[in-house]
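Anyone up for a design puzzle?
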């Protein structure tokens, strides 16, 4: 499974938000059962608006681990994020079924 979180962050807190995500939030999510890896990315285009868009992709073992996360861990982690950044960061989430992982062939 791939759990994708897209976050629009106010530019005034973007650096603080990114540091907190790297040092605190993402490591906390990775401690949840079944979560094995995270990739944090920033959208390159910047239209001069007041928000910066980030995407975090988490690798998750399967459907049961996602259900457990939503039932047991997600509310606490979202509340911590909301308490720290309030309306300055807005998130949307997707759960995706991974159909294939391809790598460049080795010579």
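Challenge accepted. My sequence:
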């Amino acid at each position: 499974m791939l759990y994708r979180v897209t976050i629009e962050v106010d530019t005034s807190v973007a650096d603080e938000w990114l540091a907190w995500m790297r040092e605190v939030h993402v490591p906390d999510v990775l401690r949840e059962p079944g979560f094995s890896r995270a990739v944090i990315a920033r959208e390159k285009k910047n239209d001069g608006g007041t928000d910066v868009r980030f995407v975090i992709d988490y690798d998750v073992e399967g459907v049961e681990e996602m259900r457990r996360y939503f039932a047991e861990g997600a509310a606490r982690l979202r509340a911590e994020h909301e308490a720290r950044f309030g309306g300055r960061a807005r998130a949307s989430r997707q759960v995706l079924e991974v159909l294939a992982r391809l790598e460049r062939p080795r010579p």
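A detail worth pointing out: Residues 2-96 form a domain with the Alpha-Beta Plaits fold (CATH 3.30.70.100).
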